[in-house]
Every structure is written in C-alpha cells, then in structure tokens.
Amino acid sequence: MSGKDVFELRSAKPSWLIRLGSWVVSKRPSVFPQTAGAVRGFLEGRKLPVDAPMPTGFERRFTVERWQAAGHECVTLHPKAGKGAKHIVYFHGGGFVLPMFKEHWPLVAALVDFTGASVTVPLYPVAPEATRKAQDAAADAAYVQIASEWAPGDIVLSGDSAGGHMVLALALRLVRAGDPLPGKLVLFAPWLDVTMADDAMREVEPHDIMLKVDALRELGKAWASDTDPASPECSPLYTPDSELAQIPPTQIFVGRHDIFVIDSRSFARRLCAAGGEVKLYEYAGAPHVFMALTPTREAKDCLGLVREFLKE
After folding, report:
1. Which residues contact 91 (CB under 8 A, 6 or more apart)?
2. For the chain, what are the domain ranges?
3. For residue 35, what is the DSSP state?
4. Does the keyword Calcium belong to this entry (predicted)?
5. Are 154 and 86 a contacting pair, CB within 8 Å?
6. How far apart (Å, rounded) are the C-alpha atoms in residues 235 and 220?
7. DSSP states of 84-129
8. Looking at the domain 3-311, which fold is it?
9. Computed from CA positions of residues 222, 224, 230, 235, in that sequence, does the dihedral angle turn out positive or negative?
10. Which pLDDT tens digit goes with each residue over 99-142?
11. Residue segments in the chain with a per-residue pLDDT below the cut of 50
12. Secondary structure element (H or E) that encloses residue 68, with its range
C-alpha cells in the first residue's frame, strides 16, 4: 500500500446532523478538565466514578453474557440469532480516568447491528484509583478468555480514544510475547501520544469541542505515573518499526475537528512505512469519537466500513 492510499477523506462536508450533535455536546458541561491546572483538582479526592449501566432494552435486543476478567466485569452482547462469526473486544474511552459513558452503549449496540459480530466490553478499572498496569491486566485477561473460546483470527480489537490506545497496547504486548494475534484492529479517534508533543494539534484545538492539549498532557502524566509518558508502553506512536510491522491489519477513523487527527496521521504513516496494513478515514467537521453520534451520516458510513473490513 502506498502512502497516498493510506488516507481517505470520507466526508468533505459535515452533515447537518453532525453539526447539530456537535453543537449539543458543546453546550453540555465538559467531562474532561479544560486546563492543565484543573487536572489535579479533577482527580484528587473525587468520588470513585462508576460505569454507566447497560440500557435495560439490550436484554431484549441481544443475548447478554456477564463475566469477569481479572476481577472486573465484562459484558458480551451476541446477536439474537446466535454468536457472531467475529468477536469484537471493545475498550471504551474516557482518558483512562473515566468509566463507561452512557453514550458508549449505543455505539456498542450499533457495532453488533452493523457487523453481526459478538461484542465484549471490558469494564476495566480507571486511574488514578487503579494503575496503568491494572488496566493492562484487565485487558489481557479479557483477551485471553475470549481467545480460549474463539480463533484469534476471528477476534477484532476495537476502542475509542483511550480505548483505542488500549487496543494498540494490547496488540503490541501480544507481539512482544509472541502470542497469537487478533485478526484486525479498529481504532476510533485513538489517543496515541499521551505527551501531546505535536504542535500541529494547536491548529485543530479551537475546533475540538471536548479535548484540550495541555489538560490531556497532564492527564497523561498522571496516568503514566512512574513510567516515561513518551515510552512506547505509554505512547504507541513511538513503537519501534520492527514491532509495528507485526500488528494486524488496522483501520483508523477520526474527525477533522478532533485534535487526535494529527497523531492518527503520523501513526498511519509510520505503520505504512514499517510495512503494516493500515487505512485512515477522516471526516470533515466531525468531533471527537463522532461515531458515537450513531444517527449521523458519518457514523453510519464509519460503521459500514467496519462491516466491510470484518468481511475481508
């Protein structure tokens, strides 16, 4: 695949519904701190946040399984017709410090509906109450359990934002250990460099209704704790080419009003240059994790591409 083939602008003009959705989100209180100075107060002494409960209607729409990995709940949704041919392991976003949002559940349901796959959501512990290594242990345990029941090639790792980071981190741990790899990776607006080093993000920042560079840099430091935030373990963007070349075929989806579009481009270039199979799809005017706005044209296009990718 040539460098030119790696990138595709899927939507050159935002739909009216994505504009409306962005406006509505912009009027709500931000779920993330907006300045570096606000991060400490945001994290210290807070009441432990809890995962948004699965909507009760899901019990009618899907066959639901609840189980545990490393002591943490996992929820699996199967199509009513039976287990899917593929199994998506989905890691939710939240900057590593926030649990499952209620907005994540419709996206998870849409993944089942669009792809016919079974989807598992590990409800992993969040920082700073839990360490980065505890999050990794929960992710590893969930994958090991699913890989004991499904052929690894039929497993797809997916996630949004910090969850997209967790997907890559898990895949790279499997590479380093020489363990069986999943068949594909699907990344929604992944957080790839917790140091937020690329100044090009400043040009996108005024358009991003959720994320701010300085605040995320401080969150990244707090999450990394005593590990260098710029290490490949904390920032997959800096993974050596020899490891990048071994990760499964990857698709990335990101809006152009999302500061993570900058590192998504850099990562896609690096992965392609290393010999990996990658495609980056961008959407004009779309906000961070726009695919969670499931009624929009952009979200439907994204999920349709995921469906076709899983068929390949």
Report:
1. 121, 122, 124, 139, 157, 158, 159, 160, 162, 163, 164, 166, 167
2. 3-311
3. S
4. no
5. yes
6. 9
7. -SSEEEEE--STTTS---TTHHHHHHHHHHHH--EEEEE----TTT
8. Rossmann fold (3.40.50)
9. negative
10. 999 999 999 999 999 999 999 999 999 999 999 999 999 999 99
11. 2
12. strand 62-69
133 and 162 in contact (C-beta within 8 Å)?
A: no
pLDDT of residue 130: 94
Q: CA triplet 9, 12, 16: central angle to 5 degrees?
A: 130
DSSP-derived letter for residue 72 is E
Residue 112 sits at the vertex; the CA angle it makes with 19 and 235, to the nearest 5 degrees, is 70
Closest CA to 205 of 218, 192, 195, 214: 214
Give the position of tokens 């009003």. 257
- Residue 277 is encoded by which pair of tokens? 């199979």
* Alpha carbons 255 and 211: distance in angstroms, whole number: 13
C-alpha to C-alpha distance for 7 and 253, rounded to whole angstroms: 10
